[in-house]
Amino acid sequence: MRVLWVVICVICALLAAVGGVFVVAGLKDVLRALRSRRWPTVPGTVLAAEEVEHRLPVPGQPEPRIHYEARVQYEYSVGRVLVGTATLRVDPTARTNPQDAQATLRRYPPGQSVRVAYNPRDPTDAVLEPGAHAPSFVRLVVGLGLVGVGASIPLIARWFMARL
What we know:
Blueprint: H1 2-35, E1 41-56, E2 65-78, E3 81-85, H2 98-107, E4 113-119, E5 122-127, H3 138-163
Antiparallel strand pairs: 1-2, 1-4, 2-3, 4-5
Helix pairs in contact: 1-3
């Protein structure tokens, strides 16, 4: 019984440690996304917009999972420097639903004037849609879940062991 308890504690400690790493990374993602709302903005122009397919292999399945990304290329000027980039948001924009990418492409037709939010510390770091969106919270939520599982399994195991 003692060996089983040690194995359970080691597994839970590993889950909590991995969860902690995810929490830290997730907090960085969320804070960066929230900071992007305060970045200065400048006028820009959409140069091109296209839908890009990402084929991601799924272990144990013959067909890959397809994610669709709306890639919007735009340019803007900060001071006298003309900058071009294709970052839409701080968080990832690839989705499994192609209609999501197409809806984004409809919002940004080539030639359209846009407001570009750029990082004042690095003007090449810019986004068209500043702020936190649902994907900004993924790593944080996964990390909290892993920490929660790692913390609760020993409690559940003790409860079951007390019943034996």
